[in-house]
């Protein structure tokens, strides 16, 4: 009986020991799996790492604007949740959350230049600056002081860009996409109670400014298009290129709406260094004109990163407005006969945007039109040759400034 009892005790002990071993092994497996999942989650977080927010963008904007001497006011202008009378909420979003346009205002600084005249406030022309693709209002930081001696300057971040609201981009057509920007700009104009202003747009901003002026010509007294996109359709050469395997691949990527900003976000903590290197090369060692100095480069690249790495919104417009090669799906040339606003085109001499598109548009326009070319300037002529750009803008607006006959083009700036 004792032997049997001993056997039973031994069997129970072995069973308990076996269960303990299995339990321990199971715990170890669970722990290993937990570590594996934790490492995978960490990798995902690493790849999705976006150290920015609207607060960070505004902070980087304020740091950049410490380079500016002219006092300014920064505002978030409420434009509502969507166009009045429309069921669309910028555009298919069901959210009724109000949207905001980040706005910087520089009142005319009469004391900033010795030659400035005392002008009644109602005579001071208002100049509205609209940035291009992948940019924001801070790209005009080298121009604010000079332009503020002649104008009341308002620079905005378009809806979905910079420190403005970034709603879900749900547009599905060229028409909807254009309306996203045009209607939000119009709601901003209403909120700011602006009228009879000069509208300047750069690159994509030039396309939007032109479309806005076509829809609301009564509010714009002069249009300035700086290296504007959208004045040419696909050429035969591009159509032929798109038929090659390289063209097919490039077109697939374009139509998939893979943006440069997505690449920067995907690089996680390596993104800031990539932007610094790009800014240092494009606006430094390979600048078309005057290079950014060390302080400018540091503040500007930091600002660029935060505006580019933020939540995707307006950047997703690209494939709906343009085809591969930045050719407009709805070229502005076809609308040139309908132009109602006097227009000045400004191009850097080294701009990859072809000024001959503006020449062709001028032939079809029934309003005054001029084309100004600025030396030592590429597509970002306002940064490459800030004094030349400022002089070109002043010349384009000479009919609205005191001493109208005293404005001449100098420094190699020319009319085409």
UniProtKB/TrEMBL annotation:
Residue ranges occupied by any AB hydrolase-1 domain in the UniProt entry: 125-385
Family: Belongs to the peptidase S33 family. ABHD4/ABHD5 subfamily.
InterPro entries membership: AB_hydrolase_1, AB_hydrolase_fold
Gene3D superfamilies named among the record's database cross-references: alpha/beta hydrolase
Spans through the membrane: none
Record-given protein name: AB hydrolase-1 domain-containing protein
Source species: Sphagnum troendelagicum
Pfam families named among the record's database cross-references: Abhydrolase_1
